[in-house]
Each structure stands twice: as structure tokens, then as C-alpha cells.
Design goal:
Elements lengths: L5 H21 L6 H26 L4 E3 L13 E9 L1 H5 L6 E8 L2 E9 L4 E6 L3 E4 L2 E2 L12 E5 L8 H15 L4 E3 L4 H9 L6 E4 L3 H13 L3 E3 L12 E5 L1 H19 L1
Parallel strand pairs: 1-2, 8-9, 8-10
Antiparallel strand pairs: 2-3, 3-4, 4-5, 5-6, 6-7, 10-12, 11-12
Helix pairs in contact: 1-2, 4-7, 5-6
């Protein structure tokens, strides 16, 4: 991987974040689907264009991976940026301040750098492969919990759930099983930000069913660089096209997998 200037990249995200924050504060909460889509495409598209232009000027050799191209394996060859300017778009459009900018650098489909900027709280999470994870420049780590039981966890519904009935069934079964063992299970909104919260110890773990590499693959690097583990719900290595993700400190990851595997057997019965 060619050298990238972290100061330049993080400064760019902060600058774009300031504009998004102003748009968020000025936006009237949208209720109708047409209004929501119009506002989303206008604001998200403008932020994406600003980030793309700046990164293209500094790193013309690195491609830009559109979200709609993420399913094409050829698009993942070499180095490319994967950006979600508003991860947590529904919260943004409804005036709920839990959304973030997510930017990932992929090399042959694997994340080597990720930044997740919690704009409303001014918290910049970033990780570089092999160099650790950080929040506003200070190293972070997952907590020391040995089990997911009696812990605080987060999950998210499968993306486009109505089109994935099997994933929806697995998610429902898993939620029921895990809630019976944990202190609390929450869905906070932005997937990347929830994974960042696992990385810094605020959450004891996160899981999700359904393919969601755009939001998960970079932030999963944050968890690993913070000392946590990531895998599929089956315990296999996680990659951008995986159909599930489990991220937690080592002990909680192992126990959570056992519960999820048991719940998946019940869902299949």
C-alpha cells in the first residue's frame, strides 16, 4: 500500500462533517419517502462528491468504489476508497443525532485503513492495519469482558430485510436468544458507529445478519485493531460479502457465537 497522509484525510472528513452538521441542523425532519430520498440524494451526494474530489487530487492512483459496484469482485482488485458519507441516513433525515461519516481504504478487497467520524460528538475513530485503533488520536481498546452474558450489546436489522426473509428469521431468533442472556441489547442506528463503540469499550459486542459490507468492512478493522475479534455468525473469517458479522472482545465473541449458532438451529427447525 502506498503511504497515505492521515492528517490530510482526517482533516478532510472533519471539514465535510462541519458542512453535514449544518445541513443536519437546518433540515426539517422528513416523513414522506419522496422527501426523504430527495434530501438524502442531495446531501449525501454532495458530501460524497466533495470527499471524492479531494481524495482524487491527493491520490489519483486510488480508485473510488461506488456502493452499487460493491458486489462486483473485479471492482475490489487493487486499492480503492469505499465511502459512506452518512452512515445512519434514516437517523439523519429524522433529526436523530446518531450518524457518522465512514471512509475505508481497501486493498484487494480487504480494509487497510478506516475512519469513522461521529460528527455530532466530534469523535474521530480511525485504524490502520497493524498499527492499532484510535479515538481523537488516543489509542483505544475493547473491554475485558469474558462473556456476552450480563453485558450491553448492539445489533441491527438485516439491510433490506423484506427481501431477505431467511436473514430476517435468523435475526429475530438471535435477538430473542441473546436478550435472554444480556443486560441489554440496543439498535443505535449507524452500524459503523456501533462497531466503533465496540472498539472503544462502550459496547460489549455487536452482531448483524445480512450482507452489509459497505457499512461493516472498515469498522470491523477498528474492532480488530482494538484487540477484538470479528467473524461471521458461523465463526468463519469476515469479508465484505459475508452474510453476517459478529464483533466483540475475544471472550464475549466466543460465547456470543455459541448462542447465535444455537438460535440459528432453532430458526431453521
Amino acid at each position: 500500500m502506498r503511504q497515505i497522509d492521515l492528517d490530510v484525510i482526517l482533516s478532510l472528513l472533519r471539514s465535510v462533517g462541519e458542512e453535514l452538521r449544518e445541513s443536519f441542523r437546518a433540515l426539517q425532519a422528513a416523513a414522506e419517502p419522496e422527501q426523504m430520498m430527495e434530501a438524502f440524494h442531495r446531501i449525501d451526494g454532495g458530501a460524497a462528491q466533495a470527499i471524492r474530489q479531494e481524495l482524487g487530487a491527493f491520490y489519483p492512483h486510488i480508485a473510488w468504489l461506488e456502493e452499487r459496484d460493491a458486489d462486483g469482485p473485479r471492482a475490489l482488485d487493487g486499492e480503492c476508497w469505499l465511502c459512506d458519507p452518512i452512515d445512519g441516513a434514516l437517523q439523519f433525515l429524522r433529526g436523530i443525532p446518531f450518524w457518522a461519516i465512514s471512509l475505508t481504504l481497501l486493498r484487494d478487497g480487504e480494509p487497510v485503513f478506516c475512519a469513522v467520524f461521529d460528527v455530532m460528538n466530534g469523535e474521530m475513530f480511525h485504524a490502520v492495519e497493524g498499527r492499532g485503533a484510535f479515538r481523537n488520536g488516543r489509542r483505544i481498546g475493547v473491554n475485558s469482558g469474558s462473556s456476552h452474558r450480563n453485558s450491553v450489546l448492539a445489533t441491527n436489522h438485516p439491510p433490506f430485510a423484506s427481501a431477505q426473509p431467511r436473514m430476517l428469521a435468523l435475526a429475530a431468533s438471535a435477538l430473542s436468544a441473546v436478550q435472554a442472556e444480556a443486560t441489554a441489547v440496543r439498535n443505535l442506528g449507524s452500524v459503523a458507529l456501533q462497531l466503533a463503540y465496540v472498539a472503544c469499550g462502550r459496547l460489549d459486542g455487536f452482531w448483524q445478519y445480512g450482507e452489509d459490507g459497505v457499512n461493516c468492512v472498515g469498522a470491523a478493522l477498528l474492532v480488530r485493531e482494538a484487540g477484538g475479534r470479528t467473524s461471521t455468525a458461523d465463526g468463519l473469517s469476515y469479508h465484505p460479502h459475508s452474510a453476517s458479522l459478529v464483533a466483540a472482545p475475544p471472550g464475549a465473541h466466543a460465547s456470543l457465537l455459541l448462542t447465535l449458532n444455537g438460535s440459528s438451529c432453532l430458526a431453521a427447525a
